[in-house]
Specification:
Layout: E1 12-19, E2 26-28, E3 31-33, H1 36-50, E4 56-63
Parallel strand pairs: 1-4
Antiparallel strand pairs: 2-3
Length: 70
């Protein structure tokens, strides 16, 4: 997997992953939900980023604005 942006220094690594969908949410039985695959991807970045690292790792998931409030 490849992150979109991953700046880091000696203390911290920040992983930024961006997504664009025409519709940010999916709807199931009237309930709006985010794509769970994106959340699992962020979890994988965090899990793999901690292996052999002492530094703090932060993940940010960014969705572009589509006219739908989040």
């Amino acid at each position: 997997m490849q992150t979109d942006i991953s700046p880091e220094n000696v203390e911290r690594k920040i992983i930024k992953d961006t997504k664009y969908y025409q519709h940010t949410f999916s709807q199931n039985k009237g309930v709006l939900k985010l794509n769970s695959g994106n959340l699992y991807e962020i979890f994988a970045y965090l899990s793999n980023g901690k292996k052999g690292r002492e530094k703090e790792t932060i993940c940010i998931l960014l969705y572009t604005q589509t006219g739908q409030e989040v």
